[in-house]
Every structure is written in C-alpha cells, then in structure tokens.
Amino acid sequence: MLRFRISDSFSHAIDFQANNHNDFLENVLPAAQSYRRHTVKKIHHGEISKNKIYFPAGYLHLYINDTWYNLGTIKQASGKDFFQSGSFMILPATETDFLEQVLSKDAMNLVAMIETITKHIQDTQLWIQGIDDQIKQTVDQIDDQYLTTAQAAARLGITESGVRRMILRGKLAAWKPSPRTILIRREDIETAERSKAGRPKRKGRS
C-alpha cells in the first residue's frame, strides 16, 4: 500500500492511499477535491460584485520508510545517475468564479499527467530503495570491520572503561562516527588479543 499526500508545503495536507500505480488515479481525484475544498479562499479585487475564489497550488509527496519525500526523476549525466527532485505540483494555483470549474479542470489535468506522475513515483521509489541498500551495505561492512567498546571489552576480558583508557593512551586506534559512538577496528582488537595472550602472567607475592 502506497501512501501519498497533497499539500501546500506549509499548513494544509490531504493524505490518501493507493494499492498500486493503476488505482492511483481513482484515489487521487477525491483527494484533490478534498484539498481544494479545504484550501479555498475568497478574494476581492476592489471592484463591486467581483469576488473570486482562489485556490493555492497542491504538491504531491510520497511516504517511504517513515519519511515524506518530494517526487523526482532519475537522470543521467557524465555516465552517472542522479536524482532530481523538487516540489512536484499536480494542482496549479488558480482563481475562478465557481468551485466546480476548478474541480473539472483538475480532473482533466490529472488524467493528462498520469504517465508523468507514475514515472516520478517509480523513480522516487527506486532511488530511495537504492539509498537504503547502500546504507545497509555500509552498515554490514562496518559490522564486519569494527567493534563497539562493549564488544572490544568482551573480547579482551576487560571493562569498557579499560578499553577507553587504552584508546586514550594510544594503545588502540578508534573511530568516532558520532559523538556517542566509538568503534575500534576488529584487526586491532585481534592484535591486542594476541599481545595479551603472549604476555606472561604476573606471579603473586610470596
């Protein structure tokens, strides 16, 4: 189930869902009508009996992995793919005399745009999924190459404080990807393990 939102990017938003790209059009039309009715404003240009109705633009967003994204397209330049995104408008700002006029025009515009909209949805999904895969691959590589202070302490048979003291004394190199995260290369811990195993045990006093 795909989740979408039509918004003015500030204070008004209408959410809707679609099982797939095929029934998107069936669900976006009532959502667009609801958005227009919620954002309509009456304006007056200073002439007698010349009140009009103003409708702000509506932009489409896609919900992926707990985040709302602007739609975009995958393009290529110099042999490399890149993602071009921005505010993807599906309902233009307009003035009219009657609500029915803008609703009818919106329906025609959305039908005409459906191929472009579908392309943007598919490209956005592909790009975000690709980023997620890269992040997962990076995390897997970190898991293979690095240990946390807790993992290092367990391997060396000491406390986390002991690991931190070794880092401060220059006996272990550490990487801090964030202020609260300390990682140590697995091979450095293995070297420390071998060094520890090769040291003779201290004899107790007689």
What do these coordinates show?
With 206 residues, the chain is of the alpha+beta class. The chain folds into two domains: 140 residues, no CATH class; 54 residues, Multidrug-efflux Transporter Regulator, Chain: A, Domain 2. It is 45% helix and 31% strand. The protein is built from five helices and 13 strands. Strands 1, 2, 5, 6 and 9 form a five-stranded antiparallel β-sheet that branches. A three-stranded antiparallel β-sheet has the order 3-4-10, covered by helices on one side. A hairpin with a 6-residue loop joins strand 3 and strand 4. The radius of gyration is 29 Å and the shape is elongated. It starts with a strand and ends in an 8-residue tail after the last helix. The relative contact order is 0.10.
Overview features:
5 helices, Multidrug-efflux Transporter Regulator, Chain: A, Domain 2, three-stranded antiparallel sheet, five-stranded antiparallel sheet, alpha+beta, 206 residues, elongated
